[in-house]
Amino acid sequence: MAAFSYQQPTFLLDSAMLPNSPVKMPGLFEFGLGLGLGDINATCFPYFPPQPLPESSIDNLDTSKNVILSDNEPSMTQKQRSYSSSLVVGLESGDQVTQDETQKMDKRKKKKNGDGSCSNFAESSKDVREGKSKRQRKCSSASKDAEEDKRRADKKVGEEAPTGYIHVRARRGQATDSHSLAERVRREKISERMKMLQGLVPGCDKITGKAHMLDEIINYVRSLQSQVEFLSMKLASASPIFYDFGADLDASLPKPPVNLAPPPTTQSTQASCASEPTAFMDSTTSFSTRNNYPILDSSIAAGFLEQGQRPNADAFPQKNGNLLWDVENQIRSFNHQSNFNTFCSFQ
Amino acid sequence: MASPSSFKQELLKKWVLGLQSCCSMAKDMGISERKKAIKLSADLAMASARDGRTCWSRAVIANASKQNESKILVQKILGSECERLVKASSIGFSSCNKRFTSKRILRRSCSSLRRIRRSAPKRVQASSIAKRMVKKRTQLLKGLVPGGESMDEFSLIEETLDYIISLRAQIDVMRCLADASERLKSQ
Known about the structure:
Chain A: Pfam families: HLH. Chain A: InterPro entries: bHLH_dom (IPR011598), bHLH_ZIP_TF (IPR024097), HLH_DNA-bd_sf (IPR036638). Chain A: It is found in: Nucleus. Chain A: Residues 174-224 form the BHLH domain. The structure holds two protein chains of two kinds. Chain A is mainly α. Chain A has a domain at 179-239: MYOD Basic-Helix-Loop-Helix Domain, subunit B. Helices cover 56% and strands 0% of the residues of chain A. Chain A has 14 helices and no strands. Chain A has helices at residues 2-7, 11-17, 25-33, 56-63, 73-93, 97-113, 120-135, 142-163, 178-200, 210-238, 271-283, 298-309, 325-332, 340-344. Chain A is elongated, with a radius of gyration of 27 Å. Helix content of chain B is 80%, strand content 0%. Chain B contains seven helices and no strands. Chain B has helices at 4-25, 31-49, 55-66, 71-78, 82-117, 126-144, 153-186. In chain B, helix 3 (55-66) packs across helix 5 (82-117). The longest helix of chain B is centred in the middle third of the chain and has 36 residues, at 82-117. Chain B is elongated. Chains A and B meet through helix 3, helix 9, helix 10, helix 11 and helix 12 of A and helix 1, helix 2, helix 6 and helix 7 of B.
């Protein structure tokens, strides 16, 4: 059921459902935020997904509220063709499976045609659910409904383009006044976002309630913030390097021995954080002199970032993750007096 | 179109800028002050790397620019776009606040009317308990996410999404720097 309902919207959402998938959410909610803000840029913040997704599809999301992936059309049309053939067969047999095929056909048709309107997504998702509710009806009426749906879909495609309203179909046995419909759309938007958050926050796959999800989210945000605090404390006490970029360091900066409180442990503290206290204690020993370090430029920055990416088990895609254990070993044998730029040339 | 690594690179660049400026200012800071300066510059770098596109980043910038100590840091990190971003942040902030306060007034007046009309229910329904729980937690989340007070539920969730991602990136960058400094020191 979940697979069916999430097939249709976007590939981005699909991969958001996968565990440990790279995060593509920011690209999606750029457009949502742009509503009240007036300056929606086309630039967004997508991460490279493992599956090949055309980059311009993310642009489409940004610029309009549509979930139309026009660049995916070639694949879509192929699917359409295959679905149409199966649809013909299905209609003849009167099978319930045709419901699914029809729904998919309708969605893809709407995707192709509806361009500037902002209703496709809501509508198609409603159709998905309507298809599900229709499955509960008897088999005999299945084929008739499929045809009706097709006709309605054809009509709607013509209507959608000029209006730009959000068309929502009331489900069977539900209130049809505008307030509850709008309420339902809002609720579904929220639940969508909650599902995205579920993919983002670790350990939330099995949590279904909103309150529980919010609990987990709160804990996670708190833990992230405390990690930031801890890391900044570590950096503050650990080294004078960061205070004297581009300047010579004194031979021995008098540092008072630092008694550090143990890092704030929260329920969801990651394992890597636990290993840091030990490393931190080592760093409180006295340090030797350093010669002047050149100011970090972007190449050095890239080197640092890629070096550190390897141990992280986070959801960010690590394209170059494999390559830089070598670099790290070279850093260990690296003479601290030599230039940083040679370090960067390993990239 | 920014990739995650370029976001992190930008974050690191801006953070280093901030560190340079704040630490050239006072070399005799105590450890807690240094930690605050580092954290502040990291937060500002993170917020400015989002370029004012999200509500929380604008809130962070607005808060920082209000305090006198951090104004110079804000200018350094934001660089050329400083004025534009600060203005945008403060405007957005004030409009959000106005919207929020007006909504709050409306809600309060409506709820007080409702209370007069209805009699006290004898049994508390499960749905109302659930709603209260959700509301409590939403309030907590609003307190956590910067600038979250003046957001409705939907935008709050979106802001949380973005904020979590940026926090992760920030942690990655900071951890990289910390690890690298340790390794260099151990030589």
